[in-house]
């Protein structure tokens, strides 16, 4: 059986209220969207102990970096966005009685929402290419045209003119 989220006090009170109103377990489960087992367990607990709150949030080990420590760490991050985990840990430990490890710093930063960096976007067109309209992914043509390649154009009169702007193998273009 997997773990599921805890019911809020409001959800528990709604279940108890619906059952006290006279709804059956199945009607309450269908109305509120909980399983019949959950409805039965919450209502039975209320009947036995008059308790509608969960104390499960009090279980487990307390965090080394509490809410105040998180605000302090947030200030350290805002002061130096490019600081490494080791640097943040050293600065944080210089001002508190309970020192924390680098691993705790990483865990706390992840809990605070600093878990990943945005990738830097590389432009597809370089700044020089933007002016000339050249895509940076394509090879840049050399300034001098190659002497072994040239295009020959034939006019209607049959004479040919050479064009050395493009570096393509020799070919004939025009009417034959």
Automatic annotation (TrEMBL):
GO molecular function, one term: DNA binding
Compositional bias annotation for Basic residues: 112-121
Region described as Disordered: 112-176
GO biological process: DNA integration; DNA transposition
Regions of compositional bias (Low complexity) in chain numbering: 157-167
Domain Transposase Tc1-like: from-to ranges: 71-129
SUPFAM superfamilies named among the record's database cross-references: Homeodomain-like
InterPro entries: Homeodomain-like_sf (IPR009057), Transposase_Tc1-like (IPR002492), WH-like_DNA-bd_sf (IPR036388)
UniProt feature, compositional bias: Basic and acidic residues: 128-138
Name of one Pfam family that matches: HTH_Tnp_Tc3_2
Name of protein: Transposase Tc1-like domain-containing protein
Lineage of the organism: Eukaryota, Metazoa, Chordata, Craniata, Vertebrata
């Amino acid at each position: 059986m997997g773990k599921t989220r805890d019911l809020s006090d409001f959800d528990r009170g709604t279940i108890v209220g619906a059952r006290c109103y006279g709804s059956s377990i199945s009607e309450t489960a269908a109305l509120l969207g909980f399983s019949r087992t959950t409805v039965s367990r919450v209502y039975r607990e209320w009947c036995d102990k008059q308790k509608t709150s969960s104390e499960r949030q009090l279980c487990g080990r307390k965090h080394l970096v509490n809410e105040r420590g998180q605000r302090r760490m947030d200030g350290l991050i805002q002061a130096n966005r490019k600081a490494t985990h080791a640097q943040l840990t050293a600065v944080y430990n210089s001002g508190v009685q309970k020192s924390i490890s680098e691993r705790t710093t990483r865990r706390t930063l992840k809990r605070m929402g600093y878990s990943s960096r945005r990738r830097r976007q590389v432009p597809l067109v370089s700044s020089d290419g933007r002016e000339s309209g050249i895509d940076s992914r394509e090879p840049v043509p050399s300034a001098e045209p190659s002497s072994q390649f040239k295009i020959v154009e034939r006019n209607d009169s049959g004479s040919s003119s050479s064009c050395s702007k493009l570096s393509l193998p020799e070919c004939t273009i025009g009417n034959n």
